[in-house]
Design a protein that fits this description.
alpha/beta, 7-stranded mixed β-sheet, binds 5'-O-[(S)-butoxy(hydroxy)phosphoryl]adenosine, Acetyl-coenzyme A synthetase, nucleotide-binding, EC 6.2.1.1
Length: 650
């Protein structure tokens, strides 16, 4: 990667009108870190409060006084901010513009008024099933407007939603339902993706054979597949509930620090963590970053091409855009079906001005050739965004030149499930761009680089990325395990939040994320814990031991490479390899499927029995010439076998 001036893209002249220019950014940033109380007193007011806050950040990252709160004495309702407050000014404007999987299918759009009506009815229906403040409700939903309705209905009554990505297996879903003891599950009969159907309701039925907290399952009839809901007292038809409910549902008054949602994400160890976000700070952060980073101007059509099952969908399809009165496009389909023009056809059809997507999608489309892009106009586009993983400069240049016709700035937004919203990102009217760099911190964000011992690195340097101060969108705890929250993020470098990412800062102060430094793999912009894949593998009756590492992958960014030691007497052949891949897909979901499985008679371990992943990573990367010191291994000879039997990626 180069950071020389030749690769710099200055702010285009047409962007002189942007809300914040370079001088404005510097001044606002200075104020945000020098006078955080004054800054957040002003910016906290961008949302509507029932009882205004007087406090802003109350936090400490130290073990002794550990705690994080923002705007703590204020009260609000998040759904009222996303709906009610727009009714007088933009009630007839489209809030959700829904584009179906099948280009020939019928789209739908819901105005703010229609969305408000449906959310209120569904919120009343949830209440009639016993839900209220603090209840946990799991959503296992396709990309349809009802998913947004369900999230906002939870927010309206103070229930905590936990959206589980619809690509996860019944087993993974069951674990996430059990962890937070959800009493209600909302799903659809089937989802649709790329012309295929996904059996969501059948997966829920299977998951529920392992869970006993669930009292009600609400099914949206989307495809009509799988028959009508059973109406057996546990299963309910979404449409029937909505039709029967009153449209009058006053929003519940919530404290700023009352939970809004739980979202499970993989870590370096153990089972997925329930990341908890609260109401006030999260909404301020989602709304503020959405408006400023995307320079959003209502009522233009904005499209975040993520799934609502991930944090990107929460913050940038639902909460940020709707708090800002945006028209948010929701796409049910996939980028390469029916063909590789689909995304850009949707852009043309709906005159999308801002498009936000992941590098993995760009790399997949780039491979198909420019002709698929060239046959579309894309003249409505004025800004492009990238999220989820480092964007390689080749993909960046392609996005800029071929997709954006050289006209549109690219905001490469670095953030995490834990941060709630953008943290290091360009502002399109303020920041000169360098392909592959997430550039500079957003307001109130104080990034620092430290070495392995925690020594602060100054100037141009490379190290581990930590954040020195809290910000309103920060996660507040791990559901049910506050000790794990502290341990995971605040123990490695006392007094700082550790991101898990490696990062370089260049001479201009620009940040270049280099990828995870922990045992987390970033597959297609989605986080996968190596420990999770390992425990799925060892659950197979023929597997004795497994070690999983990341490897470079041309489209996914990182692929999953699994070393598997079989039980005595088993033979590793192609059939077993395929079976193990299927097994992991079934245990966790397709995103966890290994790209390479190597059968290994032994794994490289230290004399104390610790697997030396550094060596496994090198072999998976194909860098067998630079394995480093192997003399501390209990049995250095295992390495020769591993090198000799390396598997090329599928
Ligand atoms: C991890 C967080 C951000 C929402 C979607 C993923 C990586 C994310 C970037 C970027 C380089 C990035 C980091 C981070 N990441 N955005 N623009 N440049 N890396 O959220 O699943 O919580 O994953 O994604 O490694 O730690 P997530």
């Amino acid at each position: 990667m180069s950071d020389d001036k030749a690769g710099v893209y200055p702010v285009p002249a047409e962007w002189a009108h942007a809300k914040i220019d370079a001088a404005g950014y510097r001044e606002m940033y200075r104020r945000s870190v020098e006078d955080p109380h004054g800054f957040w007193t002003e910016h906290g007011r961008r949302i509507d409060w029932i009882k205004p806050f007087t406090r802003t950040g109350d936090w400490s990252f130290d073990a002794e006084h550990f705690g994080i709160a923002w705007f703590a004495d204020g009260t609000l309702n998040v759904s009222a901010n996303c709906l009610d407050r727009h009714l007088a000014t933009r009630g007839e404007q489209v809030a959700i513009l829904w584009e179906p999987d099948d280009p020939a299918g019928e789209g739908r759009s819901l105005t703010y008024r229609a969305l408000h009506d449906e959310v209120c009815r569904f919120a009343n229906a949830l209440k009639s099933l016993g839900a209220g403040k603090g209840s946990r409700i799991t959503l296992y939903m396709p990309m349809i407007p009802e998913t947004t309705v369900a999230m906002l209905a939870c927010a309206r009554i103070g229930a905590i939603h936990s959206v589980v990505f619809a690509g996860f297996s019944p087993e993974a879903l069951a674990g996430r339902i059990q962890d937070c003891d959800s009493t209600i599950v909302i799903t659809a009969d089937e989802g649709r993706r790329g012309g295929k159907t996904v059996p969501l309701r059948a997966n829920v039925d299977e998951a529920l054979t392992h869970c006993n907290s669930v009292e009600h399952v609400i099914v949206v009839r989307h495809t009509g597949g799988g028959g009508a809901p059973k109406e057996d007292g546990r299963e309910h038809d979404y449409a029937a509930l909505v039709a029967a409910a009153s449209p009058d549902c006053p929003p519940e008054e919530m404290a700023a620090e009352d939970p809004l949602f739980i979202l499970y994400t993989s870590g370096s160890t153990g089972k997925p963590k329930g990341v908890l976000h609260t109401s006030g700070g999260y909404l301020v952060w989602a709304a503020m970053t959405h408006e400023i980073v995307f320079d959003y101007r209502a009522p233009e059509v904005y499209w975040c091409a993520a799934d609502v099952g991930w944090v990107t969908g929460h913050s940038y399809i639902v909460y940020g855009p709707l708090a800002n009165g945006a028209t948010s496009l929701m796409f049910e389909g996939v980028p390469n079906w029916p063909d590789a023009s689909r995304v850009w056809q949707v852009v043309d059809k709906h005159r999308v001005t801002i498009f936000y997507g992941a590098p993995t999608m760009l790399r997949a489309l780039m491979r198909e050739g420019d002709q698929w892009v060239a046959r579309t106009e894309r003249s409505s586009l004025r800004l492009l965004g990238s999220v989820g993983e480092p964007i390689n400069p080749e993909a960046w240049e392609w996005y800029h030149k071929v997709v954006g016709g050289g006209r549109c700035p690219i905001v490469d937004t670095w953030w995490q499930t834990e941060t709630g919203g953008h943290m290091i990102t360009p502002l399109p009217g303020a920041t000169a761009l360098k392909p592959g760099s997430a550039t500079l911190p957003f307001f109130g964000v104080v990034p620092e680089l430290v070495d392995a011992e925690g020594k602060l690195l100054e100037g141009a340097a490379e190290g581990n990325l930590v954040l020195a101060t809290s910000w309103p969108g920060q996660m507040r705890t791990v559901w049910g395990d506050h000790a794990r929250f502290f341990q995971t993020y605040f123990s490695a470098y006392p007094g700082k939040y550790f991101t898990g990412d490696g990062c370089r800062r260049d001479a201009d102060g620009y940040y270049w994320i280099t990828g995870r430094v922990d045992d987390v793999i970033n597959v297609s912009g989605h986080r996968m814990g190596t420990a999770e894949v390992e425990s799925a593998l060892v659950a197979h009756p023929k597997v004795a031991e497994a070690a999983v590492v990341g490897m470079p992958h041309a489209v996914k960014g990182q692929g999953i490479y699994a070393y598997v030691t079989l039980n005595a007497g088993e033979t590793g052949d192609e059939a077993l390899r395929a079976e193990l891949v299927r097994w992991v897909r079934h245990e966790i979901g397709p995103i966890a499927a290994p790209d390479a499985v190597q059968f290994a008679p032994g794994l490289p371990k230290t004399r104390s029995g610790k697997i030396m992943r550094r060596i496994l990573r090198k072999i998976a990367e194909g860098e067998v010439g630079s394995l480093g010191d192997t003399s501390t291994l209990a049995d250095p000879k295992v390495v020769d076998d591993l090198v000799a039997n390396r598997v090329p990626a599928a």
